[in-house]
Every structure is written in structure tokens, then in C-alpha cells.
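Hey team,

Filing this mostly as a record. A colleague (T.K.) asked me to run one chain through the structure pipeline before their review meeting, and I want the input and output archived in the tracker in case anyone asks later how it was produced. No errors, nothing strange. Just documentation.

Input sequence:
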Amino acid sequence: DEVSLMHFLPSITNTLSLRVNDYDDLVEVAAVGHREKKNLTKKAVQSVNKRKVNQFLRRKGKAYIGYKRSREGKVSFVAKGERRMGETCMSNSCARSRLRSCDIITEEQRRELFIDYWENLNWSEKKEYVVNMVIKTEVNRRTSEKRELSRRGGTLKYHFVIDGEKVQVCKKMFLNTLAIKEATVTYWLSKYGTGQQKMT
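Output structure:
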């Protein structure tokens, strides 16, 4: 029920405006914790449920209590803010580009991308989405002096699917729309790979 659930939630969640579906999911998260940890003490069960609820909130892009570990191994808890969509791309370069479509994507479409990413995908699906939307392009080029092929470091091209069509956007547009950091994209690509596209 609501009383027992809120007992397990960290205090930061009191400031959240959760929809009905979110609340139902939180109830299920707490219930799972109880079923899995029947033999634990009440304090241990509370700890398990707090962790599960925070994992759920983090996956949904909501504010949650995270933790960080120092080099000495000491753990400290940190309040993490809610994910918010960043500003759209206003670059004149993108507006003039024949390749990037930042200027044709509306705020409503960006909002739909943001909501779908954070509310409808689990972590595995989030990673898969990023890996599929970011393409590494390797370019072969001839040097002007030796007239031989040399390989330039690959560049990353970012995409969204708009009205069923995959369109290219700039890095800022991609990161701001999904409210994720470049370091996150770089890590996921290095760990799970990326689409490859060769051009000569």
C-alpha cells in the first residue's frame, strides 16, 4: 500500500510527480523485494527495496539516490536530479547542411523521442538504441604527396528515426534530446560496438 511503499522510498522521491503507471510499477518493485527476501530482517528488506526503487527511478530518468565509491573504497550517497531534455540545435552550420536534419525536427518530435527513450525502454534497450543510432564512418583518403591510401580516425554520425525515416543530426542535438552525456555514448560504443560505414 501507499504507506508501506513510501516507507521504503528515499526522501528525494517525495518531490517527484509520478504518473499512475509509475506508482503501480513502484509498488511491484517493493513487492518483489519482499518476496525475494522473506528470510531477511526488516532493516535488510528495507535496504533491498530502497535499492530496487532507486534502480527503477534511475532507469526512468527520475530523481534518485545514487552512490559513488572513493579510491579508498568509501561509499557516499549522492542525490541525482531528474533527466531533462536540453535545448535544441540552433547551429547555422546544421541549418545549411544537406546531410544533417536538425532544423526539421520539431520540439514535439524531440519530446516524443525523449519520453519514449526514458519511459518505455529498459537499460539494455537504451544501450541498443544508442548503438544503432550512432554510426562510425571510416574514411579512406589519398595523401597529397605520396599518393597512397591512409586511414583517418573514424567519425561518429548521430541519427534519429523521424516519421519512419532515419535522419542524421549533430552530436549536440542527439545528446540534448536524450539527456545523456557524451561519455555515456562513448563508453557504450566501446563496449557494445557501433554500426560501421565505409566511405572512400
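Quick notes for T.K.: The CA atoms of residues 130 and 187 lie 11 Å apart. The beta strands are 64-69, 75-80, 134-142, 149-162, 165-169, 195-199.
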